[in-house]
Amino acid sequence: MSSEAFDMKKTLTCEGMLRRHPWYFLWAILSMILYSGASLLVAYALELIVDSASSGNESAFWKALIWSGGAVVAMGLTIYLSSILENKVKRLALESLRGAMLQRRISSDVDTFLKEPSSQYISLYTNDIETYRGFYIDPLVRLYENGLLFLAALTYLFVISWILALVVLVSSVAILFLPAIFGKPIARSQKTYSTLQGEFLGKLKDLFLFFPIIKTSGSEGEEGNRFQKDNAAFEREQERCQNLGSLSYAVDVIFASFAQIGMMALGAYLVIQGKLTIGLLIAATQLSNSVTNPLSIIVNSLSSIAGSKAIREKLDAELAVMPRKKPYTLQSPIETIAFKDVSFHYGDKPVLQGFNHLFTRGSKTLIVGPSGAGKSTLLKLAIGFYGDYQGTILVNEKEVRDIDASLYADLAYVPQETMIFDDTLRYNITLGKPYSEEAIKEAIEESDLASVIAALPSGLDSLVGENGGSLSGGQRQRIGLARALVTGKGVLLLDEATSALDFAASSQVHAAILKSRRTVIEVSHKISSEEAKPFDQVIDFAKLS
């Protein structure tokens, strides 16, 4: 993530990211101007070589060769300099864009985030940004570069012969209408492609994530067919988008070629009439290439930029994400969590109906019941993951949906599935926060993680692999518990947090957690009656009316 800070109240746009580093942008423009000037020097050098040869002036010929060599070297150096600065501008712009998007997204509410599947976010931050680079940033840079070259070459061409310059200009004007013809179809195709890309990425993620289930159920053929159908639709739309671009390019080449042929024919006629030297004709031909070729690139760049509108709007929508301004800042510690006649639905499916309960500080509550009864949902409601509930949920007498991020200052949550980062065990416990070694050691002991650490080659600094691939389910759960316990927060919400542990390990963890002064709310369907005894109260969802 970019280390830049972005004003959370300011409206940001993806195009605006290009202006965050104006000096690099200005230097890049200057280098483009130098490149345009060097290109004119090459045309002038060709004129000198041909005219000196035509006049039989050997001295002028050798001087022209030296001049042309310097011009070519200058052009090469300015091309390299321009490329370096252009790449710097593009890198900083995309770095800022991705950083700003992530900063806005992680500042948003959890319930807002959960409304979209993770595959959409992954696609947005990878594929869509790359599409933005290819269809907007790169064409925009080419537009500036070739626009400057076009103006410089056309000006020099007017100096050589205004008639030739006028012919090239008039015959090239038709090219400028191409973006209006192809821009909208390309934009529509890119929008469809972006949508299919996000959906395809989600299905691909599921395919690899659920591979063991697919294999053991013998569904390889069915899943393969389903994948191929989505794959074909995705690739067809990409092909359609590319074909539209190819058609735009082909038409552009036809117009550019006619412009060049027309200029050459007129120039040859002027040479025959004695109104133009062969050297000037060669220089004019070189310059006409520096007019028609850049104009072709300009047209294609404009078409691409126009076609990128859908992607830019999508990225701007992500940049526009703002956390909902909430009226309450919670003061630690959390004394009470009160549910008053709370109901919740997943779509049309009711999960909770009129639930009432008061959780007080220091209490130990066990929630049991059948799957689908709403136990896990209850915990997620308490931490503000879902804001569209009916009834009232009060934390320290404040409505939970109206409390800002201070809600999590005294509240730790351990979900059913422990997410493990592809990093060290230490990082997975601390998540990069500077906890003391004493706090880390205490959390390790409470979560029964010491034996796991002892077995690892580098202890706490051992890498655990992608999603903890080198760890068992029970070891991952212990890490999840340690991650919550090291924070020292006063309220601990556990969602099946010991389901993968054996009885001895689970009992040890519960003994450590329940003897503390923390408020503990645990959801479980597996806990033994012996482990349940230390809890102050047990809420059985199967018995709720």
Please give a structural write-up.
- The chain contains 17 helices and nine strands.
- The model has no long low-confidence stretch (mean pLDDT 82).
- By secondary structure, the protein is of the alpha/beta class.
Quick structural summary:
This protein has 545 residues and is of the alpha/beta class. It has helices at residues 22-55, 58-106, 110-113, 118-160, 162-173, 178-209, 211-216, 220-272, 278-307, 309-319, 375-382, 425-430, 437-446, 450-455, 473-485, 503-514, 529-532; strands at 336-346, 349-360, 364-368, 390-395, 398-399, 411-414, 491-495, 519-523, 537-540.
The number of distinct β-strands equals: 9
Spatial order of strands in the largest sheet: 6-7-8-3-9
Distance between the termini: 49 Å
- Identify low-pLDDT runs: none
| Tally of helical runs | 17
Order of helices and strands: HHHHHHHHHHEEEHEEEHHHHEHEHE
Average of per-residue pLDDT values: 82
> What overall geometry do the principal axes of the alpha carbons give?
elongated
Percent in helix: 55-70%
As a percent range, the share of strand residues is 5-15%
User: Could you give a short account of the major beta sheet?
Assistant: 5 strands, parallel
